[in-house]
Design a protein that fits this description.
The protein is α/β, with parallel strands linked by helices and about 210 residues long. It has helices at about 10-20, 35-45, 50-55, 70-80, 110-115, 130-135, 150-160, 175-195; strands at about 1-5, 25-30, 45-50, 60-65, 85-90, 95, 100, 120-125, 145, 170. α2 links the parallel β2 (about 25-30) and β3. The structure holds NADP nicotinamide-adenine-dinucleotide phosphate (NAP).
Length: about 210
């Protein structure tokens, strides 16, 4: 599968790229700066280009830019993305001295993006820590994915299963991105408070 990682020069996008390269996927790292993308892509054995170049011919576009730029980036790439499925990994967070809060009171970044692009949008992977993802060992946690398009969700669940030793869990419709994005505030807050790298595991499957 050809996967374009928009903002793949960042810590999370690069870690996803490394993982999926091991699964023999074709990865294109996108950046606002072609040279930066090419340089970073060469290190891990992927292709690189501008974000607009990266999404051309992709089977899946992963929007892995800084969360605050995700909606605007989707708007800028709307034409190039066309009807290609999109995975949104973003969370809107408000980090203060008192704690980490959800950055919005309604909706989600993923739903905003779904209102912009023509293709199906799924949301997920928010709880996977980039630092651990970059290591060869599978993450000891579940990966949650939500979306309204069954085929795209199944595809992304399969890609997610390659990242964790836990389960890739269908977390329901795209509106549940509100919960997945909000849960990131909880996880980041817990990490800061307990000085750990927390992950998510759902019980009750057995
Ligand atoms: N870090 C984690 O552990 C983690 C875990 C789960 C999900 N996520 C999500 O993954 C996404 C990326 O996280 P990250 O930690 O990798 O972020 P990051 O390193 O801060 O940023 C990723 C890339 O976004 C691009 N970018 C920054 N500002 C931009 C702007 N104004 N417009 C367009 N592109 C911009 C940059 O690429 P160029 O400068 O090369 O264009 C940068 O390399 C976020 O949505 C985050 O919530 C992160």
């Amino acid at each position: 599968m050809r996967i374009a990682i928009v903002g793949g020069t960042g810590t999370f996008g690069r870690a996803l790229a490394q993982r999926w390269l091991r699964e023999d996927h074709e990865i294109v790292i996108g950046s606002r700066d072609r040279e930066r993308a090419e340089r970073q892509a060469a290190v891990i054995g992927a292709a690189g280009g501008t974000n607009a170049e990266a999404v051309q011919g992709a089977d899946l576009v992963v929007l892995a830019v800084q969360s605050g730029a995700a909606v605007e980036t989707a708007r800028q790439l709307e034409r190039e993305i066309g009807s290609t499925p999109v995975l949104c990994v973003a969370s809107d967070l408000l980090v203060t001295r008192d704690g980490v809060y959800p950055g919005r009171n309604e909706g989600s970044i993923a739903e905003d993006i779904a209102a912009i692009v023509d293709g199906p949008v799924v949301s997920g992977f928010q709880a996977l820590p980039a630092a651990q993802l970059a290591l060869p060992k599978l993450l000891d946690e579940d990966v949650l994915v939500c979306g309204d398009h069954a085929e795209t969700k199944a595809l992304v669940l399969e890609l997610g299963q390659a990242l964790v030793s836990g389960r890739a869990v269908d977390a329901g419709p795209l509106a549940n991105a509100r919960a997945l994005e909000g849960m990131t505030a909880v996880i980041v807050h817990v990490n800061r408070t307990y000085k750990i790298v927390a992950g998510l595991r759902l019980t009750g499957f057995e």
